[in-house]
Amino acid sequence: MAGEFEEIAHSGGKVTIHIIDDANGRRGYQMSYQSMRPVPMALTGVYALGQSGMPVATYNIAGKDSAPFPGCVPVMVASDSEGKFGHHCPACDGYWRSGPWANVCPYCAVQAQPYEFLSHAQFRYVRHYCEVFAEAINADEPGEVTIDMDAVADAVQSTGEKPAFYVSEQSQQHKFKCTACDEFNDILGRFGFCTLCGTRNDLTEFEGRIVLAMRDRLNAGALPSDCVRDGVAALDTFIAQYAKALAMLVPMIERRQKRLTGGRFHDLVEVRDVFSKFCGIDICAGMPGDEIEFATRMFHRRHVYEHNGGEVDQRYLDESGDKTVRLKQHIQETLQDGHRLTNSLVKMARNLHKGFHEIIPPLPKPIEAHESRKARIADRSAPNRARPAGG
Questions:
Q1: What are the extents of the domains in the chain?
Q2: Which of 167, 209, 176, 168 has its CA nearest to residue 195?
Q3: Among 18, 121, 152, 236, which residue's Cβ finds the most Cβ atoms within 10 Å?
Q4: How do residues 318-373 score in pLDDT, each as one tens digit?
């Protein structure tokens, strides 16, 4: 798998357009795609306007649909050499890679048809394809023309002139599979929306990477106070990602936008108030009072561990209301406190993720399709049921 920002060659192959005249002199065509390269390859397609090469619809290469307009050209589009496709957002111009079907921009969450998310290189290829097709279909005699994508794939290693329809993609920074629909995503940065279903990946990252690492550190003997500091900071970042997404996607007055995009989220009481009033989300839903009180105190103690080396200052006493410690006292946490906090952080993260997607729902069809696939696999993998007697 490629590292950050590496150029990924096309999967290669050859597209052949066969022009045919029938007995009545009516002209038609057939298309084929052949690839012999030992790399992963996936194939999809778009319909494009023959004169301009502008994509206008998704093309089912299995042949179960028809052109949306007269004069449309069906264009076969092959993947890169990792079996993935590059995409550009028509709204924010962000670039990413995924499977063939993109429904949602992972950066700005705009929804569009898959053909509208072609990468810039794929747009050039589609225009070239339409030009070659037009020349072939309008030629005096029938015949066949070939678009050699093997030459395109080989050109990624070449310093010479690239083909006019050169296509390659670029790996990004963070590759993940969506836990809701199982789609592969390769995005810039770490956090974003799944391009197939629109589910955010923050919760998976928070639980599967950050919290898991914190628990491992605690069990390996790390200072619990360090984990309190880092855990609250990580949730602060987690909350900020959802806050920015809400400010971007939900119409609201400027004052609320500024609070969600410009403020920090290290005071749990204020965080609960903001999300409850602005969005109707209680990030402490289902948590008993003593757990909320404990988590609130740990949020305030982050300041003590981060800036004062664990020594209580007047700010902590004023803001936390903690009567169990005194000014200049050096405080520390127990291993039990560290694990208790990580459990609370996960609950709050789950509550925010759930509340966010109640406001910005994911697309249901990709998720339902994935659940259906899982059910079929589980059914096939289940042990054979005992046959009834006499069967």
A1: 7-187, 202-361
A2: 176
A3: 152
A4: 999 999 999 999 999 999 999 999 999 999 999 999 999 999 999 999 999 999 99
